[in-house]
Amino acid sequence: MKTVGQLLHGERNKKNISIEELSIATKIDEKYIEALEADRYDDLPSETFTKGFIRNISLRLGGNPEEFIAIFRRDYRNPDLKKGSNKSKSIKFKLPSVTSQFLPIVLGIIAFLVYLGFQFRAILTPPPLAINKPLSGSVLASPVDIQGSTSSDSLVTINTDNVVKPDQNGAFQIRLSLPVGETKLIIKATNRFGKSQNIEVPLTIISN
What is the model's pTM? Predict the structure, then answer.
Protein backbone atom coordinates (compact mmCIF):
# COMPACT_ATOMS: atom_id res chain seq x y z
CA MET A 1 0.00 0.00 0.00
CA LYS A 2 1.64 3.21 -1.16
CA THR A 3 1.89 6.26 1.04
CA VAL A 4 0.83 9.76 0.01
CA GLY A 5 4.50 10.70 -0.26
CA GLN A 6 5.21 7.88 -2.70
CA LEU A 7 2.17 8.79 -4.78
CA LEU A 8 3.07 12.50 -4.94
CA HIS A 9 6.65 11.63 -5.81
CA GLY A 10 5.47 9.38 -8.63
CA GLU A 11 3.08 12.00 -10.01
CA ARG A 12 5.78 14.66 -9.95
CA ASN A 13 8.18 12.41 -11.85
CA LYS A 14 5.49 11.63 -14.45
CA LYS A 15 5.05 15.36 -15.03
CA ASN A 16 8.83 15.76 -15.15
CA ILE A 17 8.67 18.59 -12.60
CA SER A 18 11.55 19.19 -10.21
CA ILE A 19 11.04 19.93 -6.53
CA GLU A 20 12.35 23.43 -7.13
CA GLU A 21 9.80 24.05 -9.90
CA LEU A 22 7.01 22.62 -7.77
CA SER A 23 8.05 24.84 -4.87
CA ILE A 24 7.90 27.94 -7.08
CA ALA A 25 4.51 26.96 -8.52
CA THR A 26 2.89 26.16 -5.15
CA LYS A 27 4.87 28.62 -2.98
CA ILE A 28 5.66 25.73 -0.61
CA ASP A 29 9.18 25.53 0.79
CA GLU A 30 11.30 22.81 -0.88
CA LYS A 31 12.14 21.24 2.49
CA TYR A 32 8.44 20.58 3.14
CA ILE A 33 7.94 19.01 -0.28
CA GLU A 34 10.98 16.76 0.28
CA ALA A 35 9.75 15.80 3.77
CA LEU A 36 6.26 15.05 2.43
CA GLU A 37 7.55 12.83 -0.38
CA ALA A 38 9.80 10.99 2.10
CA ASP A 39 6.91 10.57 4.59
CA ARG A 40 8.89 12.42 7.26
CA TYR A 41 5.83 13.78 9.02
CA ASP A 42 7.80 14.90 12.06
CA ASP A 43 9.60 17.43 9.81
CA LEU A 44 6.29 18.93 8.68
CA PRO A 45 4.15 21.55 10.42
CA SER A 46 0.71 20.75 11.84
CA GLU A 47 -1.69 18.29 10.22
CA THR A 48 -3.86 21.17 8.95
CA PHE A 49 -0.94 22.89 7.20
CA THR A 50 0.24 19.59 5.72
CA LYS A 51 -3.23 18.94 4.26
CA GLY A 52 -3.01 22.36 2.63
CA PHE A 53 0.36 21.43 1.12
CA ILE A 54 -1.04 18.18 -0.25
CA ARG A 55 -4.05 19.96 -1.74
CA ASN A 56 -1.91 22.57 -3.53
CA ILE A 57 0.63 20.01 -4.77
CA SER A 58 -1.99 17.55 -6.04
CA LEU A 59 -3.85 20.31 -7.90
CA ARG A 60 -0.60 21.42 -9.51
CA LEU A 61 0.12 17.81 -10.54
CA GLY A 62 -3.41 17.31 -11.85
CA GLY A 63 -4.52 14.82 -9.21
CA ASN A 64 -7.57 14.57 -6.94
CA PRO A 65 -6.74 16.42 -3.68
CA GLU A 66 -9.34 14.55 -1.63
CA GLU A 67 -7.86 11.14 -2.50
CA PHE A 68 -4.36 12.24 -1.52
CA ILE A 69 -5.61 13.84 1.71
CA ALA A 70 -7.52 10.66 2.61
CA ILE A 71 -4.37 8.57 2.17
CA PHE A 72 -2.37 11.08 4.19
CA ARG A 73 -4.95 10.98 6.99
CA ARG A 74 -4.75 7.19 7.07
CA ASP A 75 -0.94 7.19 7.26
CA TYR A 76 -0.67 10.12 9.67
CA ARG A 77 -3.16 8.85 12.22
CA ASN A 78 -2.56 5.08 12.06
CA PRO A 79 0.71 4.03 13.74
CA ASP A 80 0.43 0.47 12.35
CA LEU A 81 0.45 1.73 8.77
CA LYS A 82 2.95 4.54 9.17
CA LYS A 83 5.67 3.64 11.63
CA GLY A 84 8.07 6.26 12.81
CA SER A 85 6.08 9.47 12.43
CA ASN A 86 3.60 8.85 15.22
CA LYS A 87 6.33 7.36 17.39
CA SER A 88 8.26 10.59 17.08
CA LYS A 89 5.15 12.59 17.86
CA SER A 90 4.38 10.54 20.98
CA ILE A 91 7.90 11.21 22.22
CA LYS A 92 7.50 14.90 21.56
CA PHE A 93 4.29 14.98 23.58
CA LYS A 94 5.73 12.97 26.47
CA LEU A 95 8.97 14.89 26.85
CA PRO A 96 7.35 18.14 28.10
CA SER A 97 5.52 16.25 30.87
CA VAL A 98 8.75 14.57 32.01
CA THR A 99 10.56 17.89 31.86
CA SER A 100 7.83 19.61 33.86
CA GLN A 101 8.18 16.98 36.59
CA PHE A 102 11.92 17.39 36.90
CA LEU A 103 12.06 21.16 36.38
CA PRO A 104 11.39 22.06 40.06
CA ILE A 105 14.07 19.57 41.13
CA VAL A 106 16.60 21.00 38.67
CA LEU A 107 15.81 24.56 39.76
CA GLY A 108 16.12 23.51 43.41
CA ILE A 109 19.54 21.97 42.77
CA ILE A 110 20.72 25.09 40.95
CA ALA A 111 19.50 27.34 43.77
CA PHE A 112 21.23 25.12 46.35
CA LEU A 113 24.51 25.20 44.41
CA VAL A 114 24.33 28.98 44.14
CA TYR A 115 23.72 29.19 47.89
CA LEU A 116 26.70 26.92 48.57
CA GLY A 117 28.83 29.07 46.28
CA PHE A 118 28.00 32.18 48.28
CA GLN A 119 28.67 30.38 51.54
CA PHE A 120 32.08 29.11 50.41
CA ARG A 121 32.92 32.57 49.12
CA ALA A 122 32.03 34.07 52.50
CA ILE A 123 34.13 31.43 54.27
CA LEU A 124 37.18 31.93 52.07
CA THR A 125 37.01 35.69 51.50
CA PRO A 126 38.04 38.29 54.15
CA PRO A 127 35.37 40.88 54.95
CA PRO A 128 35.48 44.24 53.17
CA LEU A 129 36.91 47.14 55.20
CA ALA A 130 36.92 50.83 54.37
CA ILE A 131 37.95 53.75 56.61
CA ASN A 132 36.16 56.99 55.86
CA LYS A 133 37.57 58.99 58.76
CA PRO A 134 40.29 59.88 59.71
CA LEU A 135 42.34 60.05 56.52
CA SER A 136 45.79 58.52 56.53
CA GLY A 137 48.45 61.06 57.57
CA SER A 138 45.96 63.48 59.16
CA VAL A 139 47.05 65.92 61.88
CA LEU A 140 44.34 65.99 64.53
CA ALA A 141 43.44 66.84 68.09
CA SER A 142 42.35 64.07 70.43
CA PRO A 143 39.77 62.55 70.85
CA VAL A 144 39.51 61.27 67.27
CA ASP A 145 36.34 60.14 65.51
CA ILE A 146 36.84 56.91 63.58
CA GLN A 147 34.26 55.97 60.95
CA GLY A 148 34.19 53.20 58.38
CA SER A 149 32.29 50.28 56.94
CA THR A 150 32.58 46.49 56.73
CA SER A 151 30.20 43.52 56.54
CA SER A 152 27.34 43.61 59.05
CA ASP A 153 28.38 40.25 60.56
CA SER A 154 31.92 41.40 61.38
CA LEU A 155 33.49 42.76 64.56
CA VAL A 156 35.86 45.72 64.29
CA THR A 157 38.88 45.94 66.59
CA ILE A 158 40.92 49.14 66.88
CA ASN A 159 44.40 48.90 68.39
CA THR A 160 43.57 45.45 69.85
CA ASP A 161 41.49 46.65 72.82
CA ASN A 162 38.66 48.71 71.33
CA VAL A 163 35.84 46.66 69.81
CA VAL A 164 32.87 48.03 67.92
CA LYS A 165 29.93 46.22 66.26
CA PRO A 166 28.78 47.58 62.88
CA ASP A 167 25.11 48.38 62.33
CA GLN A 168 22.89 46.39 59.91
CA ASN A 169 24.39 48.29 56.97
CA GLY A 170 27.96 47.51 58.04
CA ALA A 171 28.75 51.08 59.17
CA PHE A 172 30.68 51.64 62.40
CA GLN A 173 31.82 54.65 64.42
CA ILE A 174 33.82 55.18 67.61
CA ARG A 175 35.62 58.08 69.33
CA LEU A 176 39.00 57.39 70.91
CA SER A 177 41.45 59.39 72.96
CA LEU A 178 44.97 59.10 71.55
CA PRO A 179 48.31 60.26 72.96
CA VAL A 180 50.04 63.36 71.60
CA GLY A 181 52.61 62.65 68.91
CA GLU A 182 52.87 60.34 65.97
CA THR A 183 50.68 57.26 66.34
CA LYS A 184 49.04 54.60 64.24
CA LEU A 185 45.53 53.19 64.21
CA ILE A 186 45.40 49.46 63.46
CA ILE A 187 41.83 48.69 62.45
CA LYS A 188 40.83 45.05 61.98
CA ALA A 189 37.54 43.58 60.76
CA THR A 190 36.84 39.90 61.50
CA ASN A 191 33.78 38.07 60.13
CA ARG A 192 31.93 35.12 61.70
CA PHE A 193 34.11 32.66 59.79
CA GLY A 194 37.29 34.06 61.36
CA LYS A 195 38.51 35.75 58.19
CA SER A 196 39.94 39.21 58.81
CA GLN A 197 41.31 42.27 57.09
CA ASN A 198 43.54 45.04 58.53
CA ILE A 199 44.04 48.68 57.66
CA GLU A 200 46.70 50.88 59.25
CA VAL A 201 46.10 54.63 59.50
CA PRO A 202 49.11 56.76 60.57
CA LEU A 203 48.17 59.99 62.41
CA THR A 204 49.79 62.88 64.20
CA ILE A 205 48.04 64.03 67.39
CA ILE A 206 48.88 67.60 68.36
CA SER A 207 46.79 68.00 71.50
CA ASN A 208 44.36 66.32 73.89
Answer: 0.43
